[in-house]
Amino acid sequence: MTIDLTDEELELSAMVRDFADTVVAPQAYEADRTKTLSMDVVAQMGELGLFGLPFPEQYGGQGGDYMALGLAIEALGRVDQSIAITLEAGVSLGAMPIFRFGNDGQREELLPDLLAGRALAGFGLTEPEAGSDAGATRTTARLDGDEWVIDGSKQFITNSGTPITRFVTVTAVTGMNEGRKEISTIIVPNGTAGFTVEAPYDKVGWHASDTHPLTFDGARVPASNLVGERGTGFKNFLSILDEGRIAIAALATGAAEGCLEASIEYAKSRTVFGAALSTRQNAQFTMARMRARVHSARLAWHHAARLRDAGKPFAEAAAIAKLIAGDAAMDNARDATQIFGGNGFMNEFAVGRHYRDSKILEIGEGTTEVQLLVIARGLGLV
Length: 382
Description:
Layout: H1 7-34, H2 39-47, H3 66-77, H4 81-101, H5 104-115, E1 120-124, E2 140-144, E3 147-158, E4 165-177, E5 180-189, E6 195-197, E7 211-222, E8 226-227, H6 233-269, E9 271-272, E10 275-276, H7 281-309, H8 315-340, H9 350-357, H10 368-378
Parallel strand pairs: 1-4
Antiparallel strand pairs: 2-3, 3-7, 4-5, 5-8, 6-7, 9-10
Helix pairs in contact: 1-3, 3-4, 3-6, 4-5, 4-6, 6-7, 6-8, 7-8, 8-9, 8-10
């Protein structure tokens, strides 16, 4: 299914789908089983230019837009959500804050390797006491001469501990302003004294995605590592999350489509009571609903991406897209697992992995409840 795509966008989508089917899918089960992110796959994504899709050629990007990024993420999400989120986070949370809010020196120093896939970066936002309520941030950064001294902790930080992770951009309280926390964003290079990347999580899903808690104990970085103006961190990370929700919606759409594709193939080959499962009306109706969910989710994220790329307000559309697509991924994973029966409960089948992986799509980069809050605000109800 394609929706109003240009020839270039269709070509990109087909190219990444082929890469997903021939390179990513064959390693997905073993990567999930061993909880290992394939750096070879990451390197190949870099060679294809995927990490640079929405960035200008000036920094080594492809000169594309968020629609292009979403198409790539959706194609990957069909077969391996861990690889898809590695790309999504590498772009939306790793490189985009530097591109959007960094100074010329930071862009010139950091973006070329990030956009080429030679380096990854994380975005340290969530804390044990600050998830959806990011304003409850407790990590602090104080100026001591020409250095920031950072204390605190972060959790659930993607791409923070890979062999090629170069830095994390963290939100921290840098003071008070009229009784409210002044939140700023600061680059902390990996290897900084006092900065510890803790052991990886034992997660329910996304096993091959790199995710760690972070600890800062008097970590010192140059004052020049401030990203954007002091005190603009809260506003800046909200805009980053708005964009990221489009990308997550694309990932969720891909997961929903992957479940549909697998279900169709399995139902045609599976014989039950003397006939192919695909001939049973119950199975047909189930897959018809799955198709409708994929179509609705794709319409939603395409709409949000087109608004963003046109420079129009898109926050509400992004929230709607993430809500619809997250639901579609979860519902299709459940239905696909049911169609597969006992095989759907086995991790070597992609639908079983989608069943575990998809739940986080209703949580990460803003929970379902946060999306509903954003939508309600758009209705003038909050």
